[in-house]
Automatic annotation (TrEMBL):
Signal sequence coordinates: none
Localization in the cell: Cell membrane
UniProt GO molecular function: hexosyltransferase activity
Record keywords, A-Z: Cell membrane, Membrane, Transferase, Transmembrane, Transmembrane helix
Residue stretches spanning the membrane: 60-82, 94-112, 144-165, 171-190, 236-253, 259-277, 298-317, 337-356
UniProt-recorded name of the protein: DUF2029 domain-containing protein
Similarity comment: Belongs to the glycosyltransferase 87 family.
Naturally occurring in which organism (per UniProt): Amycolatopsis acidicola
Main location: membrane
Length: 378
């Protein structure tokens, strides 16, 4: 993998935000310009700046290696959880071996390799959510890690929907309380930055990035902005498509077992978010492992072929081969829109398929422990 000269752009922004917080400066004010990039704002909650502080202390190359190691470990942990749910008879050693091997293979996926390239935190957040929601240990207080993930980056709040639909209300409570406690801590450490983020417009997109028509923004909002429709048409279509997606997501999540439901929740959040860069789609890695594993267990070559085809699309990243930047997305032809919105369209199709396919054709299910909502301890 390539780390842009060991100067990952997003990691640099994380470090700038952390150093600003440590110095008592405005985290959301002007920051130094990352090497090889344009000026970029820090758009995460204040707790993220606090959490990134250890990465701001060493040199940038060393921090880049540390972030890459954390991301690689997080991916392996997530895939290990998936593998243990697909092949319940596999020993821990065998599952770990497969997790490492599949993690190496998944680096070929564009969302994963770009997460490494940018020094992004996506894989770490995915692991926090997966460990929290897929852990069956007695006494595990489900929801706490989800709350911490929300405090780092607001978008994992979509997993509260997953916990709610599974009627795991204690986990919802734990997630809300843990996020509130962490954010409250930041209020005492950096009151001005915390106030600006939550009440000064940063949370709602004051940075100007929200809804970007840039090709890598694989969301409903991004796709509509690339069409450059009249405002009235844009708003009507956005309401219709977003509302329909939420309904499809709820239906699909309710019908799914815990593992598939978690992935469907992530997918719902990705497509309805104002902005989901292509490197945010890292949940494709556990999704492909899950679907591929179930296709193998069911001896279904057609399903396995479909999984491989989707994997190829996420390796190739069709949007990256189309005219982009400086508004060139606004001149795409209909075919280019179809190709350039491939992640979004595949995501919507998968949600619809899981919402409406006959239950009798669901294939091989996860262990029986997934068929009923799991209630976490207090």
């Amino acid at each position: 993998m390539v780390f842009s000269g060991l100067s990952p752009t997003d990691l640099q922004v994380y470090r700038f935000g952390a150093l600003a917080l440590a110095a008592g400066h405005d985290v959301y004010g002007p920051l130094p310009v990352p090497t090889g990039s344009n000026p970029l704002p820090f758009i995460y909650p204040p707790f993220a700046a606090l959490a990134f502080l250890p990465l701001a202390l060493p040199s940038l190359p060393l921090a880049a290696v540390a972030m890459a190691a954390a991301s690689a470990g997080s991916l392996a942990v997530t895939l290990h959880l998936v593998i243990r749910r697909i092949w319940t008879t596999a020993s821990r050693r065998v599952a770990c071996g497969f997790a490492v091997a599949l993690s190496l293979a998944c680096v070929a996926l564009e969302p994963v390799r770009e997460t490494f390239s940018f020094g992004q935190v996506n894989l770490v957040l995915m692991a926090l959510v997966a460990v929290d929601c897929l852990n069956d240990r007695p006494g595990w207080r489900r929801g706490i890690l989800v709350g911490i993930a929300v405090a780092v980056k607001v978008t994992p709040a979509v997993f509260l929907l997953f916990l709610f639909l599974r009627k795991d209300f204690r986990a919802v409570r734990n997630a809300v309380l843990s996020a509130a406690v962490v954010c409250g801590l930041c209020w005492f450490i950096a009151p001005d930055s915390t106030r600006r983020y939550f009440f000064g417009g940063e949370l709602t997109g004051a940075s100007g990035l929200s809804g970007s028509p840039y090709a890598t923004n694989q969301t409903i909002t991004g796709a509509l902005n690339r069409l450059a429709l009249p405002p009235s048409w844009h708003e009507a279509l956005w309401l219709l498509l977003t509302g329909a997606t939420v309904v499809l997501g709820v239906i699909a999540i309710r019908r799914a077992d815990r593992l598939m439901g978690l992935i469907l929740t992530a997918l719902t959040g990705l497509v309805i978010s104002p902005i989901s860069w292509s490197h945010h789609w890292v949940w494709i890695a556990p999704a492909l492992v899950l679907l591929g594993g179930r296709a193998l267990r069911a001896a279904n070559p057609a399903a396995l072929g479909g999984v491989l085809a989707v994997g190829v699309i996420f390796v190739v990243a069709p949007h990256s081969h189309l005219p982009a930047t400086n508004g060139r997305e606004l001149t795409w032809t209909p075919w280019e829109h179809l190709i350039g919105d491939s992640y979004l369209l595949l995501g919507l199709a998968f949600l619809a398929w899981n919402a409406f396919r006959p239950l009798a054709r669901r294939g091989v299910r996860s262990p029986a422990t997934d068929t009923q909502p799991a209630v976490s301890s207090a």
